[in-house]
Design brief:
This protein is of the alpha/beta class and 310 residues long. Helices cover 46% and strands 12% of the residues.
Length: 310
């Protein structure tokens, strides 16, 4: 017999995180038949209830209202899994990966941003067949330090069978002068030329996560005086979606967020309470034409006044 904690862990890995039985066996250092036995035991003891749910009835009306309010071409809503941020993030990433696979084509240039939702998208990407003869490029610097896992743009390129093009530069520099010197570097210029021809962009929308240790005291004061509530591609904005803190932005290397509205398919991927105000601002500024979020975030972005009007 197995203890309750083990049954819960196996069930979460399988049903919420989407791990295979083989992968779970490796994580727990047991055999695959033992994992299968544990899953059966979890069901028999009521640790797991399997129900078939046709979908959240709120999703389509919410999507339609978001499309109408913000002039969006597409809205895709994942279910919200209350009390389990990891499972919600996984569901959001899987939906975003599906959306990305549905829009990419041969010959395209695909730009990939950063952040937890974009990373979840990359993690959920599975190899496609046939492969896509496209070019995948990061939309900002910062992916220049070696790490254990490939960067999101590389993982997405691998899954598509596309060609990755790296941007060998930091995202945030010490001064505008340093940024201007690097901006004309031939390697960075080659990536900028690709940015000018973007067909698809997948971008996260961040809340206020800066600190004096990260941006320095001068930029922090500028961000605070500009009433920045979030950032997209390292570009801060206020509650009205206006870009602020130009001195800070002059220190960054990345695709100009103001040009997102010109990209044929600009996909915003974000969910959670901290993303509600930033999403509302960027959607109001018409930076994106495709939104991937979850039901709870969609409801919050529309707000009680919109709900009442509907």
């Amino acid at each position: 017999m197995s203890d309750h904690a083990l049954l819960v862990r196996v069930s979460r890995l399988y049903y919420e995180a989407g791990e295979t039985q083989e992968r779970i066996a490796s994580i727990l250092r047991v055999t695959r038949p033992q994992v299968s036995k544990l899953l059966k035991e979890a069901r028999s003891k009521g640790v797991v209830e399997i129900r078939i749910i046709e979908g959240d009835e709120r999703a389509e009306p919410l999507a339609e209202r978001l499309r109408a309010r913000f002039g969006l071409r597409e809205v895709h809503l994942a279910p919200t899994i209350e009390g389990d941020a990891a499972a919600s993030r996984w569901r959001l990433g899987r939906l975003s990966a599906d959306v990305l696979r549905s829009v990419v084509r041969d010959g395209q240039i695909i730009g990939i941003g950063s952040g937890s939702s974009v990373s979840a998208t990359a993690e959920a990407m599975e190899p496609v067949a046939p492969q896509i003869d496209a070019t995948v490029v990061p939309l900002g610097g910062g992916f220049w330090v070696s790490s254990a896992d490939p960067e999101p743009f590389r993982r997405i390129a691998d899954a598509l069978g596309a060609t990755p093009r790296a941007l060998l530069a930091p995202g945030l520099l010490e001064s505008p002068a340093t940024r201007e010197a690097l901006w004309c570097d031939p390697g960075i210029r080659a990536v900028r030329d690709l940015w000018a021809r973007l067909d698809v962009a997948v971008v996260g929308v961040g809340g206020p996560s800066w600190s004096e240790a990260i941006v320095g005291p001068v930029s922090l004061r500028e961000l605070e005086s500009g009433r920045a509530i979030g950032e997209v591609l390292m570009t801060p904005f206020d509650a009205e979606g206006r870009f602020v803190a130009p001195g800070f932005s002059a220190r960054t290397i990345g695709f100009e967020a103001s040009r997102l509205g010109q990209v044929p398919t600009a996909i915003a991927v974000a969910a959670g309470a901290s993303k509600v105000a930033p999403l509302r601002a960027t959607l109001g500024a018409r930076l994106f034409n495709v939104l991937v979020t979850d039901v709870a975030t969609a409801e919050a972005v529309l707000g009680p006044d919109e709900d009442a009007a509907a």
